[in-house]
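Progress note, sequence design subtask.
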């Protein structure tokens, strides 16, 4: 009894699915045809649509249109063929082609483990056959240059106060120099004709031309020493506050730089210059 009911239900459902009325065809036809063909399609009656699309012909068109549809659907999203490649599993049987020796071959140093980079089997390697060229000076210093003309333009623009001491932090905050300051700042003599008022500087190095121009206008230039930690404390004191640390003490210059600086840098960044005295110029601290 149960089998008869199931068979009857299946037959009625199949017949209902294959029977297509005129309203369903008129509703499905615009989905099957492209938009360009729909514009040129004549206005036909529902009987004409039913006659053109029989049950078998209608199913074939549906399957073909699904395969070559220009519309994008979420269920049709696929990766390009070959874009995803599975990882090679070595040593997983001879059927994979990478079993047993896993592509390393039989015996030998390359089959058993690694060897030193650049090893050429015992002969003199290339890195020893080629002669050495040049050297790298471990004591070299890199200073970021800044010209007097650029500083004068920033003073005229109101970004630097000429009445206060101009330090490396002042130059960094005003945009006169970049953020990457490795060993300090060198004051250059470019644009000396724009300096017409006294200016006071504290920088790492200064050229002879720049120093003469600043002193001729009634200003002063002091060469100060900061080590790596001191330079960070000068330029970024907020970093120490964020870490909950105190500002470090100013470091003394090494023996090779004592004759190239005038004094030790002050922390935090000073605002008033220190006047030069004969004693300080004779024996720099």
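Output:
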């Amino acid at each position: 009894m149960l089998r008869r009911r199931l068979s009857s239900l299946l037959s009625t459902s199949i017949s209902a699915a294959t029977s297509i009325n005129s309203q369903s065809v008129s509703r499905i036809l615009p989905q099957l045809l492209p938009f360009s063909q729909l514009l040129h399609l004549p206005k036909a009656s529902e009987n004409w649509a039913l006659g053109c699309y029989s049950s078998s012909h209608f199913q074939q068109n549906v399957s073909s249109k699904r395969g070559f549809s220009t519309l994008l659907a979420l269920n049709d999203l696929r990766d390009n063929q070959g874009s995803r490649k599975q990882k090679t599993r070595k040593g997983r049987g001879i059927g994979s082609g990478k079993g047993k020796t896993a592509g390393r071959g039989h015996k030998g140093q390359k089959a058993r483990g690694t060897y030193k980079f650049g090893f050429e089997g015992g002969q003199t390697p290339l890195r020893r056959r080629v002669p050495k060229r040049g050297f790298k000076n471990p004591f070299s210093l890199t200073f970021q240059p800044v010209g007097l003309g650029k500083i004068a333009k920033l003073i005229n623009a109101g970004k630097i106060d000429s009445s206060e001491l101009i330090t490396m932090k002042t130059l960094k905050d005003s945009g006169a120099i970049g953020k990457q300051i490795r060993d300090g700042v060198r004051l250059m003599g470019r644009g000396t004709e724009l300096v017409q008022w006294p200016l006071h500087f504290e920088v790492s190095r200064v050229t002879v031309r720049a120093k003469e121009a600043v002193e001729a206008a009634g200003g002063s230039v002091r060469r100060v020493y900061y080590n790596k930690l001191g330079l960070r404390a000068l330029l970024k004191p907020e970093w120490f506050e964020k870490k909950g640390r105190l500002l470090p003490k100013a470091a003394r210059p090494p023996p090779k730089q004592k004759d190239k600086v005038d004094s030790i840098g002050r922390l935090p960044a000073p605002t008033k210059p220190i006047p030069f005295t004969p004693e300080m110029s004779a024996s720099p601290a």
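The radius of gyration is 42 Å. Work on this subtask will continue into the next period as scheduled.
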